[in-house]
Amino acid sequence: MNTKYKYNPDYAVPPGATLQETIEDYSITQTELAKRLGRSGKSINRVINGKEPLTPQLALQLERILSIPASFWNSLEKNYREILHKLEDEKKMEEEAEEVKKFPYAELANLGLVEKTRKKNVKAENLLRYFAVASFSQIPVVEAAGFRIANNNNISFESLAAWLRHGEIASRQIATNNFDAKKLRENITVFKEFTKYKLDSTFLKLKAICAECGVAVVISPYLSKTRICGAVRWMSPEKPLLQLSTSSKQNDILWFTFFHELFHIFYSNKTETFIEFDNHSSTAGEIKADNWAANTLVPNNKYQRWIQNNKTLSLKSISDFAEELNIGKDILLGRLQHDKIIDFYKFKNIHKKIKFQF
Predict the structure, then answer these.
(1) Neighbouring C-beta atoms of residue 38, cutoff 10 Å
(2) DSSP strand pairing (228-236 vs 274-277)
(3) Which end of the chain has less Cβ packing within 10 Å, N or C?
(4) Distance (Å, rounded) from C-alpha 260 to C-alpha 229?
(5) pLDDT digits 0-9 by tens, 49-95
(6) In terms of Cα–Cα distance, which of 335, 270, 341 is closest to 299?
(7) How many whole angstroms separate alpha carbon 245 and alpha carbon 179?
(8) What is each CA distance from 232 to 90, 168, 235, 260, 352, in whole angstroms?
(9) 52 in the same domain as 134
(10) 118 and 52 both lie in a single domain
(11) SS3 for 100?
(12) How far apart are the two ends of the chain, measured CA to CA in Å?
């Protein structure tokens, strides 16, 4: 039976140890070697004890004196430094592993975003690779906006950061043209028509059109303790990322969030990150985004006239008016329920449930 063992040393031996053994075999003292090299005895002692590197220049000099190739000494030094750094990194990883419990590792593993494992050190390594940082302390620096928002909203920053990172990774796989606000506006009527269908069935078309307009649209799986609906941020001056969460399985809510995030792309600063939660922020910017989305989907002047002329709302009247507006009837129903004109339990069969596969 052939068994392969992986050499994984838990200590590092400096090349100076081999050098000491060699000069002893040659009956040469450290003092004599120093004289032959034209170096101080202190310097040679430090090399032998691993306190100074065995440099390529010294390796060439040792080759002349001991007739042992410089490549041998260079290889010893290289291996020593690699093992030394590896041991230092393993020690640091043990410290990093204490932070793992703050992250939604099991959720990320179930989604196939990180490897399933029970080892804390391996989890730490996988998470650092997922976030593309050297240390967990760098994540709040990289995701500064998310860090501030989470601290102010009693949200798990680690889960929020993981969700935002998923969008960033996915956006890199989407080839987009340079951002074209005019072209994006011209497609709003198309987006409204798409709301007649479930978002999961029309998402690829939506994604393709937005990419032509310079926008990367991503659906990211909901992670617990985030309460997030959607976000907008600019990956570059010419590429905004519109990221939607599966926090709601209700079609009209997801579509409304899409239009809400469009507002931020049109009217907000490219250096800002906008994150929308299910508790609907009361900030002026989020209220404006809500109002713009609502009025874009259901123009307020037409809506008010229709309400006045339809004192008794029926499924047919809702369907007919939605067709007139060229939107999904569940979008209109959602507006009526939000405005408390219709009870949330009435016509509930109109609402479509969606499920994305990841």
Answers:
(1) 7
(2) antiparallel
(3) N
(4) 10
(5) 999 999 999 999 999 999 999 999 999 999 999 998 888 888 888 88
(6) 335
(7) 23
(8) 37, 11, 10, 10, 25
(9) no
(10) no
(11) helix
(12) 41
Of 210, 295, 282, 288, the C-alpha closest to 244 is: 210
Q: Which residue type, as a one-letter code, is found at position 205?
A: K
What range defines the domain where residue 203 resides? 156-350
Two structure tokens written together for 39:
């170096």
Burial class (CB in 10 A: 0-12, 13-18, 19+), 195: buried
Query: How far apart, in whole angstroms, are the C-alpha atoms of residue 318 and residue 324?
Result: 10
The pLDDT tens digits for 4-37 are 444 556 678 999 999 999 999 999 999 999 999 9
Q: Which pair of structure tokens corresponds to residue 17?
A: 């140890």
117, part of any domain: yes
* 202 and 131 both lie in a single domain: no
Same domain (yes/no): 187, 63: no
CB 190 within 8 A of CB 258: no
Query: pTM of the full predicted structure?
Result: 0.81
Q: Which residue has the tokens 């032509």?
A: 212
Q: Structural domain tally of the chain?
A: 3
Same domain membership, residue 166 and residue 278: yes
Q: How far apart are CA 117 and CA 114, in angstroms?
A: 9
